[in-house]
Amino acid sequence: MGKSSKDKRDAYYRLAKEQGWRARSAFKLLQLDEEFDLFEGVTRVVDLCAAPGSWSQVLSRVLIQGQRVGRAAWEDKRYKELLRLRQAGAISEADAVEAPPEARPRKDVKIVAIDLQPMSPLEGITCLKADITHPSTIPLLLKALDPDYDSSSTSIEASHPVDLVLSDGAPDVTGLHDLDIYVQSQLLWAALNLALCVLKPGGKFVAKIFRGKDVDLLYAQLKIVFERVTVAKPRSSRASSVEAFIVCTNFRPPMGFKASLDNPLGAGRKLQHSEDISAARTKPYRKVREDGITELELGSDSENEQDPGQQDIRWIAPFLACGDLSAFDADASHKLPEGHVSLDPVQPPTAPPYRRALEERRKMGGAYGKTKLGGGVE
Ligand code: SAM
Fold first, then answer.
1. Quick one: which of 126, 226, 264, 323 could link to 248 by a disulfide (CB 3.0–4.6 Å)?
2. C-beta separation of 119 from 154 below 8 A
């Protein structure tokens, strides 16, 4: 498929190139921010599964360069519209139209981006090439957040915690839905584990999920450590895809909770007894032991599947479609603007996993022999 045809089929692919984003995923974060004001008061962020780097670009433009994008851009647009209505006499002169604040770079910004793939550098952002599912990544991240962190330390709690952890992690999908959902959930679990080590109380966690059969169990588990958990679907995420994002706000680790490598999520024993189950209903999912440590009651196993009490552990998160209604529909083809010139991707992948396959095909001069290494804006 030619670039022009893809520009037509995918408005966000075209817009990403026009606005200088490395991937169309940038719009997902911007639309999530429109709804949840994610960057309010934020200066320290960890961007997991960050390559090729469009989410890091959004962070850089908002926090480092002080540009008004996402929610702020939406407010600017609304302000202009109110001014126009006032000038047209559609609303009274007396109606208060408050000017949005000026764009300003923030102070003491720290952004750490991690991915398995190498990522082209972005000014002001620390990029790490690491596997988020590997335990050795935790001290690596802590060191990046605080150069004084002693890597031989057994403590894995950040001395300089962060306000926001993002994870857009996705495996190379196989098309076998159950397998893809399973691998994706492992990435999410790893991201949550990292977030538990580095988030400050009140912090936020935003992560990609694939909505599978037991996703409600995951929401209930997240509710243990966050006050609010919402599932969001940005307009730029295709309606036809199982992809969505969980937006968790107000991190409030239970009393006595300590992040740990051996027992990553502090998971306690499973609910076995009816009194535990009724306790979980009234004091959801927490149990304070005699020694004062809070155990988290995480999930079911097959023994308990028949137990009606176990069903109560599930919890349905509110679902929100987000992004301006005037935004492009990700599933529709759109007419290209007059005189449209198709641009090259902003940042082709540095080391795409499919590079070898393409090279082999090219060598053989087969049907795909002329396929260009492109992508980057996916
Ligand atoms: N948010 C990115 C952006 O805006 O450019 C796009 C992320 S892309 C959809 C998913 C990324 O997850 C890929 O770059 C992939 O390398 C990364 N990934 C998958 N498994 C990973 C793992 N175990 N550790 C680190 N990164 C991983």
1. 226
2. no
pTM: 0.81
Active site residue 208: yes
Q: Which residues pair with 125 in a beta bridge?
A: 111
The conformation of residue 258, written as its DSSP 8-state character, comes to -
Our answer on whether the CB atom of 29 is closer than 6 Å to any ligand 1 atom is no
Is residue 344 within a helix (H) or strand (E), and if so which, with residue range?
none
**pLDDT, tens digit, 9 for 90 and up, residues 120-173:** 999 999 999 999 999 899 999 999 999 988 877 777 778 889 999 999 998 888
Helix, strand, coil % in the chain, rounded to nearest 5: 30, 15, 50
**Cα 254 to ligand 1 centroid, rounded to whole Å:** 30
The tens digit of pLDDT for each residue in 194-245 reads: 999 999 999 999 999 988 777 888 888 899 899 999 999 999 999 888 899 9
Spacing, Cα 355 to ligand 1 middle (Å): 16
Would you say 168 is a known binding-site residue? Answer: yes
Task: Say how far apart CA 368 and CA 364 lie, in whole Å.
Answer: 9
- Please report the DSSP string for 112-171 in residue order: EEEESS-----TTEEEEE--TTSTTHHHHHHHHH-TT--TT-S--S-SS-EEEEEE----
How many angstroms separate the alpha carbon of residue 172 from the centre of ligand 1? 9
Cα–Cα distances (Å) from 108 to 33, 68, 145, 162, in that order, read: 21, 18, 12, 12
Three-class secondary structure of residue 270 per DSSP: coil
Q: Is 52 in the pocket of ligand 1 (CB under 6 A)?
A: yes
Instruction: State yes or no: 53 annotated in a binding site.
Output: yes
Residue 345: which of 1, 7, 5 has the closest Cα?
7
Q: Is 187 in the pocket of ligand 1 (CB under 6 A)?
A: yes
